Amino acid sequence: MNDRPRTFLQIILTMTEAMENETYLARTGALDGLAAAATRKQAAFAEFRLACQARDPAEPSSEGEREALLALLRAGDESALVLDAVKMTLGQFVTRLRAAVGALTDPGVYAPLAGQTGRVRHIRAIRLNASV
Questions:
Q1: Could you report the per-residue pLDDT of 56-107, keeping only the tens digit for each?
Q2: Cα 6 to Cα 3, 56, 94, 132, distances in angstroms
Q3: pTM (global) more than 0.85
Q4: pLDDT band at 122 (very low <50, low <70, confident <90, very high)
Q5: CA distance 10 to 51
Q6: Chain centre distance of CA 128
Q7: In this predicted structure, what is the pLDDT of residue 4?
Q8: Cβ-contact 72, 12 below 8 angstroms
Q9: Is residue 77 a contact partner of residue 20, using CB atoms and an 8 Å limit?
Q10: Nearest-10 crossing angle of helices 63-105, 8-28
Q11: 60-65: long-range pairs with CB below 8 Å, 24+
């Protein structure tokens, strides 16, 4: 087993990979794997944060680290856009779902057409469990 501590660059790359994986799953609609990917991203971020805190501020970053940090920021921006789009799509779906269910549960009042005689009918379209 390898007991050597991971380098800052390795930690950045792990964080980027975790974020890109979560973004891919969200983009492709693989919601069943999204929770596990989010958990891996949180674990990678915790390791990244600890590595950042442990770093000597006077120690300059290598070129590779700077490039990896820029890639991490790009991955973060892309992830935020994709996850926001997923959130908006789900929000729109819930709004349409509520409207559809509301239309089903609206009893509706039907009046006779102009010129026709008859009584007004009140019809229940559907009955839902009161807990819904």
A1: 889 899 999 999 999 999 999 999 999 999 899 889 999 999 888 887 776 6
A2: 9, 16, 44, 51
A3: no
A4: low
A5: 11
A6: 30
A7: 87
A8: yes
A9: no
A10: 30
A11: 61/8, 62/9, 64/9, 65/8, 65/9, 65/12
